[in-house]
Amino acid sequence: MFMESTLVLVKPDGVERGLMGQIMARIEAKGYVITKVKLETPSRELLETHYEEHEGKPFYEPLLEFMSSGPVLALKVEGNRVIEGFRSLAGATDPTVAAPGTIRGDLGRDWGGNVQKNLVHGSDSTLSAERELGLWFG
Ligand code: DAT
Ligand code: MG
Asked: Which Gene3D superfamilies does the annotation name (predicted)?
């Protein structure tokens, strides 16, 4: 698909560290357009659906705990091939090894034993983007 929309989340660590502005600036500097914005602490129910693919994995419970620990900035972001493009901008899941130049690589690190504090989420396919945008923005 060419023109697309994706769901980006600035996770509680990014909001708490005051990185919302920098992260939005990087998205806009690359040429994508932010068309919806919402700041809220997500409910357990929302997170269970959002992360349903990870249910049963060892990091699932700690992940839900972390994601509901404070406000999350949800963004609808639009542009050609933005799903792939934002994943590339975000960098690898583990911020310790995410490439410099990426959001996770430049702004993130290990804060104690796991990779969950990796600042951002981005939908990974057109199907998940549609599903996740519906979940967060209705
Ligand atoms: P991504 O966010 O890069 O799409 P993912 O969908 O595989 O990564 O996992 C969702 C989130 O779960 C990820 O951002 C951080 C956390 N996570 C993934 N793998 C983990 C692990 N091995 N240990 C702890 N947390 C993990
Ligand atoms: Mg994922």
From this structure: Nucleoside diphosphate kinase-like domain
